[in-house]
Specification:
With 114 residues, the chain is α/β, with parallel strands linked by helices. It contains 4 helices and 4 strands.
């Protein structure tokens, strides 16, 4: 809450960014589920910016969601062993459900943030 008297809240994307940074700064591998493809891409952009000058670097932050081409998703899956943060859509569509299931299958050891 930014201002409880007025009922003004922080942006959920900025709060997710802040909490994710905390996890990543502590060395926790993290999956972040977003509620839309746009939110996924915004979070990936924010986190890449946040880690551009840090030792892990922006390449450790990856997006993964339904809507990526199959070859693009396979490339991301190959690189997941080196990624430490993944932002992924929480959507209910078939592509999103498949992407979420595949991601959790590949990375059962990661911390999951909803």
């Amino acid at each position: 809450m930014v201002n409880p008297q007025l009922g003004i809240r922080r942006s959920y994307l900025n709060e997710t960014r802040r909490i994710s940074r905390t996890f990543l700064d502590r060395g926790l591998e993290t999956i972040i589920f977003a509620n839309s493809r746009l939110a996924t891409e915004i979070l990936v952009t924010y986190l890449k910016e946040d880690f551009a000058r840090r030792p892990i670097g922006p390449d450790a932050i990856r997006g993964y969601r339904g809507g990526y081409l199959p070859l693009e998703r396979r490339g991301i899956e190959r690189d997941l062993r080196e990624a430490i943060a993944i932002a992924q859509t929480q959507g209910a569509g078939t592509h999103e459900a498949h992407a979420r299931a595949r991601l959790l299958e590949l990375l059962p050891h990661l911390a999951v943030a909803h």
